[in-house]
Task: inverse folding
């Protein structure tokens, strides 16, 4: 979030020109869609009559009401404090998603029956695979970043080829190449180790560039001063460079971990019993796929929110030196 503005000004959502523009844009968007056959059309039946026969008048009335409600909602929320605004918008969006899912007529008893196994087996395996992969990927990234910053042509060539290759191939293809390709060389690996290796190599390539840019963000004078005091390369990196680079490295690294948590679903194609695999499998017998897929989606979202909160806390910890 930007620094608080010390100049008092009228709130944007309360300016007449902005309200009129917002109303016109929302009205035009919903007028382009025929919503008379939806549940909202049924709610408007006292105004437009039979929805299927209301024609252009029905579409106009529905678009007008939606635009009016949207604008009033935004204007009223604008009077609240920042935290209250965020809470209200989150609550409203969550209600919209719940209303959307309610149209699927999900079987809640089936979800509650399968949810414990989905969590105890699927979530645990997903976190296990993701956590080990991010640790290995971080180690690979540190080595790759140092190699790409070195003056050794051999090390730079290996690191640049590695990042180019693994960033250039889809992760799913890497999973297949490792799981099906290594046995051709005589190395038979299980599904879980193959999945961890694929995730580690793929994300290690991306994180190599994150670590490299973070290290390069530190002024060269820090390096020269450390070397002039007699510090060796490893001591300089551990004590001087990396501690200063961490505030730059942590935010994108946290994003990579969240992304890896979701991409771990790709290892389900080789039979790893993670969250996505179980969601597909548990719903196949009774053809209740949406119940399990929506449950898995909600769990992924909850896990992502937890990781976002942890990342935010770590970022605040390392940003303390920049607070004035």
Result:
């Amino acid at each position: 979030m930007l620094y608080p503005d010390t100049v008092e000004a009228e709130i944007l959502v309360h300016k007449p020109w902005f309200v009129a523009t917002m109303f016109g844009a929302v009205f035009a968007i919903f007028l382009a869609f025929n919503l008379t056959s939806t549940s909202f059309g049924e709610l408007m039946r006292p105004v437009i009559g039979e929805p299927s026969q209301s024609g252009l008048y029905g579409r106009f009335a529905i678009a007008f009401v939606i635009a009016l409600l949207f604008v009033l909602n935004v204007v009223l929320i604008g009077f609240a404090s920042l935290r209250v605004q965020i809470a209200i918008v989150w609550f409203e969006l969550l209600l919209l998603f719940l209303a959307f899912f309610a149209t699927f007529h999900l079987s809640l008893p089936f979800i509650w029956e399968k949810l414990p196994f989905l969590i105890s087996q699927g979530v645990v395996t997903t976190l296990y695979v993701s956590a080990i992969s991010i640790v290995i990927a971080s180690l690979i990234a540190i080595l790759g970043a140092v190699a790409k910053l070195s003056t050794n042509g051999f090390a730079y060539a290996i690191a640049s080829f590695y990042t180019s290759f693994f960033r250039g191939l889809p992760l799913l293809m890497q999973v297949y190449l490792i799981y099906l390709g290594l046995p051709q060389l005589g190395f038979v690996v299980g599904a879980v180790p193959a999945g961890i290796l694929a995730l580690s190599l793929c994300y290690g390539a991306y994180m190599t560039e994150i670590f490299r840019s973070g290290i390069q963000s530190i002024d060269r004078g820090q390096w020269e001063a450390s070397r002039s005091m007699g510090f060796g390369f490893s001591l300089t990196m551990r004590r001087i460079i990396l501690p200063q680079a961490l505030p730059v490295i942590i935010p994108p690294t946290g994003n990579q971990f969240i992304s890896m948590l979701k991409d771990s679903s790709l290892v389900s194609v080789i039979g790893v019993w993670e969250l996505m695999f179980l969601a597909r499998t548990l719903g196949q017998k009774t053809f209740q796929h949406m119940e399990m897929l929506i449950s898995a989606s909600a769990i992924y979202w909850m896990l992502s929110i937890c990781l976002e909160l942890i990342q935010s806390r770590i970022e605040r910890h390392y940003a303390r030196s920049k607070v004035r």
Remarks:
- The radius of gyration is 26 Å.
- The longest helix spans residues 108-149.
- DSSP finds 13 helices and no strands in the chain.
